[in-house]
Write a structure and sequence with these properties.
Layout: H1 2-11, H2 17-36, H3 42-45, H4 49-60, H5 65-80, H6 84-117, H7 119-128, H8 134-149, H9 155-169
Length: about 170
């Protein structure tokens, strides 16, 4: 009898506790992201009606302990579901957000360089991007320089930012 139990046990491996904890943490992150998403995106993710109801319940639950318990329950429910489309969609949104953030920082850097360095930075920028209305861009840079000398980022700085964003996105 004991020999049979030992043979059965040798064939099966005990689940790695650390891996189980990492999986639970991944589901918790997914649950947090799902809760923050608007309800209009749920059909695209092919969430089951049960999961959708649990997310609604979480959103309607008052703060503190009850919401924490509801989050744990939602994580447990997510572990039983097949959520490949939802996690892929969230990953795509995260990638888009990172790309938009990088573009935003790039535009900010160019705007600040154009205001600080002037013509040298403009020449370098024009090598990178084709601009139809260079004169308007120069005027905005000069106006933004005047505004920044006064210690404020005014209308010209915002317009310059918008134009640079459009040029760099194209």
């Amino acid at each position: 009898m004991i020999e049979e139990d030992e043979e059965e046990f040798e064939g099966k491996q005990r689940p790695n506790k650390s891996q189980i904890k990492r999986d639970i943490q991944a589901f918790a992150e997914l649950a947090k992201k799902l809760v923050l998403m608007p309800e209009s995106t749920w059909p695209d993710m092919q969430l089951s009606p049960l999961i959708q109801d649990e997310i609604r319940t979480y959103k309607n639950t008052p703060q503190h302990g009850a919401q924490k318990r509801q989050m744990k329950y939602l994580v447990k429910m997510l572990q039983t579901e097949e959520l490949t489309s939802a996690s892929e969609m969230i990953e795509n949104q995260d990638a888009r957000a990172q790309q938009m953030n990088a573009t935003f920082h790039r535009v900010e850097l160019w705007r600040d360089r154009l205001i600080a360095e002037g013509q040298e930075a403009l020449t370098e920028f024009l090598k990178e991007v084709i601009v139809a209305d260079i004169q308007h861009l120069r005027q905005l840079i000069l106006q933004a320089k005047k505004e920044s000398a006064q210690g404020k980022m005014g209308k010209a700085g915002r317009q310059l930012f918008k134009i640079l964003r459009d040029l760099l996105d194209a």
